[in-house]
Design goal:
Number of helices: 3
Structural class: mainly alpha
Largest sheet: none
Shape: elongated
Length: 69
């Protein structure tokens, strides 16, 4: 993820981050499920999604600790 994208995501509201987190988790689940049945073309995408989920959770936690909505 590029630095510009990270700054944009970091400044997003809590609701926007939660919605993106929900969508990313669903995509990650579907990709893992698909990978169990038949290998996916790019297995590194699973790792990228997992890391993106961790980033989103970190930004949400930062907002909770600072009290920003």
């Amino acid at each position: 993820m590029k630095a510009k994208d990270k700054d944009t995501k970091r400044s997003a509201s809590v609701a926007e981050l939660q919605e993106e987190l929900r969508a990313t988790r669903e995509k990650h689940f579907r990709l893992r499920f698909k990978h169990k049945a038949m290998p996916v073309a790019n297995p590194m995408e699973i790792q990228h999604l997992r890391r993106h989920i961790a980033r989103l959770e970190t930004w949400l936690r930062e907002k909770q600790l600072t009290g920003k909505q």
